[in-house]
Design a protein that fits this description.
Structural class of chain A: alpha/beta
Helix content of chain A: 25-40%
Largest sheet of chain A: 8 strands, mixed
Strand order of the largest sheet of chain A: 1-4-8-5-11-12-13-14
Number of domains of chain A: 1
Order of helices and strands of chain A: HEEEEEEEEEEHEHEHHHHHHHEHEH
Oligomer: homodimer
CATH class of chain A: Alpha Beta
């Protein structure tokens, strides 16, 4: 029978590897001891905790060229270069590197794994020092603001007072916006891509489907699967498949797959993956469960659902940006139905109302939400131009070469 | 822990009830014996088989006032009146009844349960007479054309040569279109609502997520759950939740729920249904599994995926309608992203190319795909006007009263 393929070989050892990465990541990590607890929005303190991160490029003498890249739901700190777990290239090779729009010859790039993640920053797969066992659902639910708070503590530790720029797409854009609101004096420029100031009802609904798919998997074991030696792979794969559709667009799926059949001349009249789009989706599901922790998926989707930048300002987004000096550039994509242009415009209007410097570009593309990750020359030109202008305003030296 | 609520009480008895309904429905049923096999597109014959149906209104003397209503994926033959299994009103109370746009004082309405369904027409929950056990996955995969073929045999049995009109929304529209192509001489008028001439890659993708959710449920038991006394309720609930989002629109979800919380003042920082939209979705999932068979969900979604009216005509849709005499009226809804207006336009263009009589209306609404089921006065006016004009052309007597 045809279900998501589960490669049983080495499942246990890979589960161990994910768990090991959660505590002892292959990237640098800063550990915050009992003297430096993280105050969470859930009104509890997380302590001890740790933040894993990668850096690229060189910090200049006056520490004024740091760009913080915030990753999205399924991303991690491995922005470029070979991923230590999957062996694949980083998730933003198109954008970041020597001579790229985010030029590592010019800027010092930092990318931390988010709170609740599974690649070395404290998350549900991390060992709870109080019990010696993985947190599972005993980890407090975290928010985007909590993640940003932890990132600020990381920067303190790295001796970086002010960010030249904070950027990211999707959930990364949420973090970039939260940075500008929580620490306006520490952010010279902000470049949120394909984001929103709050998660929509439809997006919460899609997240809830993913969570229910995970929690419906008997191998989830009320979140205790790491202890019990199981792994809710099927549930997580279904969650990823549903989410993945939302990252693309109807037009892109039509262009890429249409109704083309997978390695066959005609329908099989069965439930096998007759259509290429089915095969592709199943592949996406299978790949994801190899590298991601199911409970992390619950925590991170929840953090996105809770994101509502205006909530602390009586629902008036402009008040969140009051007195903002940060230079903003917002980017949306015409075919992005997860974070449509209207979401970006709402932010632009609020920034305008707050008299903050902002530019905005809507890019015409059929690639959907994922366009920020893809080969999109107009996006590259905008990012390059915005950073270059900000760098001149900041008095950064021109690009090398 | 917070998962889709499963009311364990009476699960076994309800499973039995669904199974009983599959063989001995409470609605009329026509049984086709070994002398009348159904020739399936899968190149096998289904025999014996049966079609369950409901009728409303009275067939006139010359049998010229019959309207065939074709139901959608999650529908059944109980168009109006109390549903025998759920006790709820029929699925098209807004549209059908005395004095309604599809006026049962004037027209004779027939609605059969689709092939592959679970309310009395042969489907995977039906008893296979060769084994005495439910078919499960041993039932051949069926197509929309197979369903229409079975419906034509039903009409033969009822002595109805020509339909005054065939109508339906979503998958119902697919059947209406297939009727006009398979039996053009038997269809005077066709009124497909919110439909398409073929299923898109994105729609196949969403269906595949639903199927994977069902097949990932260990209680599915390779489709043998009825025999083994289990029921993949959680998988089916997740499938329904994912699908349900696609039936609505971002705007409708925002209007209905926004980010409103469910019976609480603030976030719980947990995975309970904090948001109303989550609670609503879970409810949709729970309700659906009470009345629907999981294998039927696999078969019917597959039939929709396979639907491609132009496939037998070298991909040229206009050729499918060549020489059509049927009067068509197509309706789409602006916020329907599952079967967008472009799908309807493609059909209209093909009908124009085939010089077939066609009218078309795109209705402005934020209600999404499900708009065809809801209180939508403009839709009612269009249906009423189209049927009235066709009735005059057909020489049917005017509406009573």
């Amino acid at each position: 029978m045809s279900v998501v393929r589960v490669d049983l070989e080495g499942v246990a050892s890979r589960a161990l590897a994910v768990r090991r990465e959660a505590d002892e990541p292959r990237s640098p990590v800063v550990r915050f001891g009992p003297d430096k607890p993280l105050k969470l929005d859930a009104r509890v303190e997380l302590s001890p905790f740790q933040v894993a991160y990668q850096t690229y490029g060189t910090l200049n003498a006056d520490k004024s060229n740091a760009i913080l890249i915030c990753h999205a739901l399924s991303g991690d700190q491995y922005v470029i270069g070979e991923h230590p777990a999957t062996g694949k290239p980083g998730w933003w090779e198109t954008m970041v590197g020597p001579g790229k729009p985010i030029d590592t010859d010019r800027y010092f790039v930092i990318c931390p794994n988010v709170l609740g993640g599974c690649m070395g920053t404290t998350g549900p797969a991390s060992r709870n020092p109080a019990t010696g066992e993985p947190y599972g659902l005993s980890l407090p639910v975290i928010t985007i603001r909590d993640t940003v708070r932890a990132q600020a503590m990381l920067l303190d530790q790295l001796g970086i007072e002010t960010l030249f720029c904070v950027t990211g797409g999707s959930m990364g854009a949420m973090q970039a916006l939260q940075w500008a609101v929580s620490y306006p004096e520490r952010v010279f420029a902000a470049l949120p891509l394909a984001g929103a100031a709050r998660h929509s009802a439809q997006n919460i609904a899609f997240h809830e489907v993913g969570r229910q798919a995970i929690m419906a998997d008997p191998d989830w074991r009320d979140g205790r699967y790491l202890l019990e030696g199981t792994n809710p792979r099927r549930g997580l794969a279904v969650a990823r498949m549903a989410a993945h559709i939302t990252y693309l667009s109807d037009a892109a799926l039509h262009r890429k797959f249409g109704r083309k059949l997978q390695d066959r001349e005609t329908w099989t009249f069965g439930f096998d993956a007759d259509f290429q789009v089915e095969s592709y989706l199943r592949h996406q599901g299978s790949m994801f469960v190899e590298r991601f922790d199911a409970n992390s998926y619950l925590y991170i989707t929840r953090a996105m659902d809770y994101f509502d930048l205006a909530a602390d300002y009586d629902g008036v987004l402009a008040h969140a940006f009051k007195g903002a000096k940060t230079r903003f550039c917002l980017v949306s994509f015409t075919s992005d139905w997860l974070f449509p242009t209207s979401d970006a415009r709402a932010i632009v209007h609020a920034l305008n109302a707050a008299a903050a410097p902002v530019s905005f570009a809507e890019i015409e593309t059929d690639k959907g939400h994922d366009a920020f990750l893809l080969e999109e020359p107009e996006l590259f030109a905008i990012v390059n131009g915005f950073l270059d202008g900000a760098a001149r305003a900041r008095g950064l030296s021109a690009a090398k070469g």
